[in-house]
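By convention, the token line describes the chain's fold. To illustrate:
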Amino acid sequence: MLLIRNGRLETMTGEEPQTADILCRNGKIERIAGKIELPKSADAEVIDASGCLVMPGLIDAHCHVGITEEKKGIEGDDCNENVEPVTPWLRAIDAINMMDAAFEDAVRAGITSAMSGPGSSNVVGGQFAFLKTKGRCIDDLIVRAPAAMKIAFGENPKVNFSDMGKSPVTRMAIAGLLRRELFRAQQYCEKRKKGEAEPDFELEPWAPVFAREIPLKAHVHRVDDIFTAIRIAGEFGLDLTLDHCSEGHLIADRIARFGYPAIVGPDLSCRNKIEIQYADFKTAGVLHRAGVMVAVCTDHPVSTIQSLPLCAGLAVKDGLPRKAGLEAITCNAARICGVFDRVGSLEVGKDADIAVFTGNPMEVFSRTKYTIIDGRVVYRAACR
């Protein structure tokens, strides 16, 4: 049992910040009240959060933590199976290494969960997973897997396969390969429902996509790639998230019209490709004002995962409202990743994933005092 006392709570439920206590038991938030008294016999750890901001643990909605390890070269890089353009049967959970030092960096930054998975070298890369950031066995840390099916448009698939003498080498081929795969998968899923299809290892991963249980997670930067992703998702009636969305500010009203959410970033990196020449921290704010649900991501290791709150802060500096900045790394990130029933806000019954900061985490001088996952303190700052 864990009791957090006297914190200024930013619950991310739409309520104004309030000074209150939080009681956690068996990994869940059991009670939130102005003052919670425990029996003297209660076996509880008590944290005094006076003067601190208490929030739901932060969430990175798109990264490759654990699957692309820092400084380990090919030995630690399992992000892209870049010899075949279509690989929906790959599962991130089989490659994420919980011993990656970046997980500890995440925990120290108050990041309690992340959406991690394959990269963007393939037209279809495989299944993402949403997981907690502290532990040794990934099977114990999964919140949702599969959580999305990765697809990619633009330069990365083109560059990867152009030297192999095989498709895709154009954006037309990327779209064509994806349509062909989705057509096959749609037929399989329809026959599967009728009991007319034999189990197919390569097509079965599409079942939750066509059941609209998980979205297509589309790597898109350029305006034309964003529209192509939207077009194809519409043709097959599938859910979609627009990841990176670097030129989204140029077509914000059109994106809002279709209703798909955007996961913006990484903007804390150089413009090292032509398709991200217009990347800018203002994108999140422009999309938000147009009515698009927005999350902010690091795309770790493109930007390091611990920079997540800073990325949100820089988006706020460039026009995203302060509240929306916090939402972009908490409740909106959880909604877009399909896990808001468990994380993303401080509410009774949700996972006790909580971060205690000395101030607003989007401000560079704020420090993480405590990080709590499933009601257990996994990080506490040394006294200074």
In short: Residues 132 and 140 are 9 Å apart (CA to CA).
